[in-house]
Amino acid sequence: MFSAPASRAQDQPQGTVWLCLLLLLPICVSATIASPGTNPGIKAWLTQRTLEFGRRFGLELLQSMLQKENELNLTGSYNTPVLGTLTYAVPRIHIHELQMNESTLDFAEDVGMRLVVQHAQIQLSADWAAQLGAVQDSGSVELRMQDLAVAAVLGVSEDGSGRPTVWSAGCDSHSTDLHMEFHRGYSWLYNLLAPLLQRTLRQQLNKQLCLVLHRGVDRLDTALKNMKVSTQLDTFAALDLSLLGPPAFTDEYGDIALKGEIFRVGTYQQRPSTLPVVLPVALPMALPVALPTPLPKTPPMAHESMLLLAVTEFVANSAAFTYFTAGALRKNISSDMLPRRFPLQLSTKSMEVFSPQLQERYPNQPMELHLWARQQPLLSCHPDALHGTLFSSAEAFVVLPNATRVPAFLLNIDANVTGKPTITRNRLGGTVRLTGLHVTQVASNVGPVEVKRLETLLKFGLWLFGVPRANKWLQAGIPLPLPHGLRLLRPRLSLQQGFVLIATDLQYEP
After folding, report:
1. For the chain, what is the mean pLDDT?
2. Residue 212 in contact with residue 65, Cβ under 8 Å?
3. What gap in Å lies between CA 136 and CA 506, rounded to an integer?
4. Which of 39, 77, 351, 393 could bridge 374 with an S-S bond, Cβ 3.0-4.6 Å?
5. Which of 427, 365, 423, 438 is nearest to 397 (CA)?
6. What is the distance between the alpha carbons of residues 101 and 501, in angstroms, rounded to a whole number?
7. Nearest-CA neighbor of 95 among 218, 191, 209, 217?
8. E strands, 347-426, where?
9. Model's pTM, two decimal places?
10. 3-state class (DSSP) for residue 109
11. Dihedral of CA 350/353/358/359: which sign?
12. Taking the CB of residue 257, how many other CB atoms lie within 10 A of it?
């Protein structure tokens, strides 16, 4: 006598769905076993075109921050030769127009990014209060700064919890042309004094512009501290997208390493390093334009994609480990779940050709098959396709009229499959193909089972029904976990020995 594992989950399609996807996610790297905590599951390279994409939105954000009413609290005094000391205060300022037509955004080596704006124009209005001798006055003033130049450096790092952190690593603002016009009060007098005040006000406004930028960066950093670094895939699994360390920046690109581990929802059970699965070493630190991939090469820096993304085999194998340990890779199959034309039906009469004693003991009775993964699936990558080996066990039961399930026989069914991933817009899909199937008998209560004939029939049935159904679902694909409003534009996926590289442009649709 024998029995199946004590705990058998009910029909759980999510595990089956994600098991199919395992073949469409991995990038393999052949190396000795390394700690998954020190090597990235996902690598991203930001290129110069990424910066050009970000520059447009960065300028929009900068304009949005500056055009809000800002507390300036400008105060100062100026000694006039005849009238005495003029004391002034400008508590707040509003920017009506900001033109930044000439700007560049570059990588700042070992720091982050550098924004340079030249020949900008800005038009402002403000309330003012002044005292000249014993006379107090107030009114408004319009200012126009031309030939404004701003240089700001944004530092980017990691805060120790896997979240990015940013800070203002430097700022300089200056303008050589300031025109001002006072209104209300003794405006006629102050307009006469305006040429004397312009230099002092210009210096203070330059400082205040950088203070506004500093406050904006601080607000951005606060938002990043609350950013989620994981995304839930289904009821079983979530994807850890936390940073493994500070991003690396050169003059030409930015290099970001993400953990990329799929873990069980509600727990964080790290995959044991003793599993017979090769873990990845660190991806090359150089920009992968020189790697043998179909990326544009002439000229490489002018026509390269905005984003280069690599996903290591660790992602797929951590998913396999998570779904396996969660018990999600199980399925109970009854006779009514199989297509009518499937060559093997779940009944003692249909199974008689493989086990004659089965029909003799339980004539014309329905059967049920309990299928589960007895070992974590193993995945690897080659230039021709993604390869996977599935280790499963199947226990057949006879369903008696009183609904009692009597164990009949237990088989091990191992399969080799290959897959080719595809990417269309924001969806990851692909196709799979069965390349091998091996059935062995583990135990039986109804005599010997002719596993070779059963194996041949299963191959035919999977080729005719199972694989086409899987491909129909896989070709539809699943949405990639991208920030809201972000779209992949003309993504290209190349499968190489050691990694899959996704090269894509980006589009933002708020």
Report:
1. 77
2. yes
3. 56
4. 393
5. 365
6. 35
7. 209
8. 367-373, 378-381, 386-399, 405-424
9. 0.73
10. coil
11. positive
12. 22
